[in-house]
Write a structure and sequence with these properties.
- With about 190 residues, the chain is of the alpha+beta class.
- It has three helices and eight strands.
- The chain has two domains: about 30 residues; about 160 residues, no CATH class.
- The strands form two sheets. A four-stranded antiparallel sheet has the order 2-1-4-3, with no helix packed on it. A four-stranded antiparallel sheet has the order 6-5-8-7, with no helix packed on it.
- Keywords: Signal.
Length: about 190
């Protein structure tokens, strides 16, 4: 090999190594999580259940029988089989103090909203969020991509928990969030 070709190969290897380092550094920086604020849960667990197939027979709308009962008109569009095997997904949303990861196993740092959603906090929820929910300001929002039914979430990207509730939460509504995600809104019982 000539000295020119050797010099070219050395320069090429140097820039290839530099480019590889830059790509790896950018990817690791992009994967790091931001620090949790007081109102944010550090993680979320979504449990999904299979959908029940609705019965093919109605209570009379097209058959000349009596109209549906009141409860049938107000029941959710989709029912889930809570007795069947479920699939669980964990979402780490932000990092706790000192870049600690969210502890999904610590029962004292969990806040269960319903059979499908549990939030995980850096501290015990009543310590991290000492304000008790009162009045209309006591709405908790869990934001993420919508499940195919539109009644729950397929993933969680953000939480806004302004208060704690000693007796538990109930889902009061769902609405679009930032034109692309769904917000599940919960209120203290």
């Amino acid at each position: 090999m000539s000295s020119e070709q050797l010099s070219f190969n050395s320069i090429f290897l140097f820039f290839a190594s530099l480019l590889t380092f830059c790509i790896l550094f950018t990817n690791s920086a992009a994967q790091s999580l931001s620090q949790c604020a007081r109102i944010h849960a550090c993680g979320a667990t979504l449990t999904s259940f299979p959908q029940l197939v609705p019965p093919t027979e109605g209570s009379g709308w097209g058959s000349g029988e009596s109209p549906p009962l009141y409860d049938e008109l107000l029941s959710p569009l989709t029912h889930f089989d809570y007795g069947a095997d479920s699939e669980t997904k964990e979402f780490e949303l932000c990092s706790c103090a000192n870049n600690e990861t969210c502890d999904f196993a610590d029962e004292s740092k969990k806040l269960r909203f319903d059979s499908m959603l549990t939030l995980h906090f850096c501290e015990e929820p009543t310590k991290q969020i000492p304000n008790e929910c009162k009045g209309r300001r006591g709405i908790v929002r869990v934001i993420g991509s919508a499940h195919g039914t539109g009644q729950t979430l397929a993933s969680v990207t953000q939480t806004l928990v302004f208060c704690s509730c000693p007796v538990g939460f109930k889902k009061v509504s769902t609405n679009m969030w930032d034109h692309q995600e769904l917000s599940l809104n919960y209120k203290c019982f």
